[in-house]
Amino acid sequence: MTKPVVEYPEGPPPNDLVVEDIVVGDGPEAQAGDIVDVHYVGVEYDSGEEFDSSWSRGESIRFPLRGLIKGWQDGIPGMRVGGRRQLTIPPELGYGPAGAGHQLSGRALVFVIDLLGVRTPDDAEE
Questions:
Q1: Where are the domains of the chain?
Q2: Which residues are in the PPIase FKBP-type domain (predicted)?
Q3: Residue 63 designated active-site
């Protein structure tokens, strides 16, 4: 896959997590406690400005779902390896309300995530 272009959303940001599959994968399915290997692009909902991208760093990133923002914890499970999913995340499921101490606090976010691999925590210990 190549780096996605995030479709700029219209209208006010959603109050709830919006999960949209762009490509449905056919590999193993991510579960809530898994370790995921992903490529992603993140943009601010209001400006469409990219604030983070594994593509820009030239490599995917692997991390446990439970260590991520709530929007990822809720939005990635059920996704299959080989898939591409867009998550539109309200501030409460991202970096919290304005003034919460993160540069993205109070902002709705849009991520396009490619799921490259999935492992259970047990697999990771081997």
A1: 18-120
A2: 33-119
A3: no
Q: Among residues 34, 35, 45, 69, which one is catalytic?
A: 69
Active site residue 89: no
Active site residue 40: yes
Which CATH number fits the domain 18-120, given the four candidates 3.10.50.40, 3.40.190.10, 1.10.260.40, 1.20.1250.10? 3.10.50.40
Please identify which of the residues 35, 74, 89, 95 carries the catalytic annotation: 95
Q: Which two tokens stand for residue 97?
A: 């309300």
Which residue is catalytic, options 51, 61, 63, 123?
51
Q: Does residue 51 have an active-site annotation?
A: yes
Q: Residues 68-116: pLDDT tens digits? A: 999 999 999 999 999 999 999 999 999 999 888 899 999 999 999 999 9
